[in-house]
Amino acid sequence: MRLWRPRAETDPFMETEKEKTGEHPRKDRKRRQVSNQLVRATEPRRACWALKDLRPEAKKARLSAILFACNCQVTPGQLCELLKYAVLGRSIVPRPSWCQIFHQNHPNNVVVFILQGMSQLHFYKFYLEFEFLRKIFRHKFCLPPQSSNFLADIIGLQKKTTGDLPKTSKGSLPSSSSKANINLHNDSIIQKHGSKKVGLSCCLLTMEEMKTFHFPLQGSPDCENFIPTKCNGSITDNSPLFGLACEMCLTSKGRELTRISLVAEGGCCIMDELVKPDIRIVDYHTSFSGITKTIFNSVATKLKDVQRQLSALLPPDAVLVGHSLDLDLRALKMIHPYLIDTSLLYVREQGRRFKLKFLAKAILGKDIQHPNTLQHDATEDARTALELAQYFLKYGPKKIAELNLESLGSHQELQAAGQKPRNTTEIPHPNTSVLECVNLVGQKLLFVALEKGATELSSYGNCETIKCLSNKEVFEQARVEIPLFPFSIVQFSFDPFTPVFTEEMSKRMKTKWREMSTVYAGPVSRTYNFRPLKRLLKSFGPIQSMSFVLETYQVQRPVTELTLDCDILMKELERDSENRDTIYLSGVSESFKDHIFHVSSHFPGLEAVILPKDLESGKQKKFCFMKFKTFASAQRALNILTGKDWKLKGRGALTPRHLHKWLRGFSPESRWPPGLRVMPPPSEQQALQTLKTDHPKVAAWYWGQKIGKLYQNMNPGTLCLILLPGCKSIHGSLPGLGMMGIKDEEESTTTGMGL
User: What are the start and end residues of every segment in region (Disordered) (predicted)?
Assistant: First the structure.
């Protein structure tokens, strides 16, 4: 199967905006500082203004539109991959091989519901009753028939014992005092700076680095009108450091300076100026800078004024320190030769950068950018960057590498109050269980289940196990406890259907889908040339078989006991969350994918093109599915592609990929010997009668609604999985079904495509 999917999104760790920080600096090294007379002579003219708490709305986490699973089947081991990633984040463990999470390092919370005793057969037999689950969860996948211990498989406990789990005090991250857990030689900071303490000159950006990261340089074509600071003195280890930070706004010609702050080594702010751009401002970036149109009414300072003032303040051997200094200097339109950029000093793997807020917490042990802070202060940016440079010079690369910043990067929002920066998360072994991963971040896992199924996790110290006497009690306990735990597993248990009952249901479902896929057409005479009719019917999609019934006088589906609800089922399949934004097209050629690629701008919101292949020949089939981010985008594309220019046949999709796999799995023949009709005993007859009295339907509807209530009470950003494990026995196997989603998941904003 060929699959086009959106290109990878911007790494959420890559810094795109300047973070706001603040605290008083430490005095780490003795060096020549700016004279007190200069500080007193240049009292900062601070701008005081009332700020509204306007902040940029963060992008909501979302899952990739397409699951990259083979035949749309996900194994318990792959589920374990996802759960470990959800706990520790991508800086600690690899991304899952079969799905992606965008706009978030790892989800805020994880909740797994296991419907023990149910399978994919249950879901599609009672499809109409599982209304909430099929409409909410856009991502569905097949599960192989359940092994003997499904729960142990998905959390990686096959070979684990209780003695394997490390001891961790509640509410704290594990200590990294054991150097064996950290390979210092592979640390990015050690690889760049070595392990010994370095002098000031070794921390300066080289000319090559300034070219690579687009710092303003003399002679550069894009820096013709930039002003040099005229600092050309010799740099020594005693040269003074100055912290610099700027705020920018958006004008009709791009980003322009609106504020500059300069902090000397003693912690004194020697310059704090608002700057009024000459060009009309179209966006004040108030949520970042706190600057509004009203504030600028009384501002007269221009860019040339602060350029002149900054040049006068800096001594010949001044070293400017900042976080992403290239942006600040370009906003100032100035060139300076001696720079320390803390986003590059504290180097990270694969060219990514740590955020200033994270470094302040992990290195300096101070909290900045409090959510309740009503005022952003560029002075705090400058002061924090200065402290970070001083810390690096005082303690050296080795001490910083021992903090294991790359691991801590996955926990950018450190939750423990007063957390010391030396507490880190260990790198787990590939066979580490989900329980151990939860333990590594100082948390507990919640497990709620019936008493008979809750024994396997109850012996683990970091698992809070709640044993219940009924599914109703499981629901009530889950409703209370889920909000208190970052990771929860809730298991409902249902009596599995007996083999005879399961066989009967399988046969009925097979017959139902076959009859729903059958069309009667007529009238035709015995002498009719059927070749054009075959060609016409094949243009709508692949045909499994064709029989001619001469007595039919209309085009319709067969009407039988099993297809009485066919029209309702068709409408509900269209509304399924996995189908509603997807269209089916027939008659596509092998060049279709190339054509779509070249005119992709005509199809806004296109997330993926699914091109099925024949399982035997490997050739592309003559139909495809196109997945869009909204229903409206899908309908617009359908109108275009079935119009006179493209001349394709199509409609809204009805059958997602996992359903194709499940239907193919139906055995063409009964498992019972041919010619033998099985007469079930009285208990089985009663079970079949139960089906007719809709009791399983009521159960499917009831527990689907209950899970819906639990889902609606979850926090935004919670990753939720619904697992119907299926079963495996001597009587046969029933594959399972999985559904997943992120609460308040954001629709994709990607319009590009990639192979």
Answer: 1-37
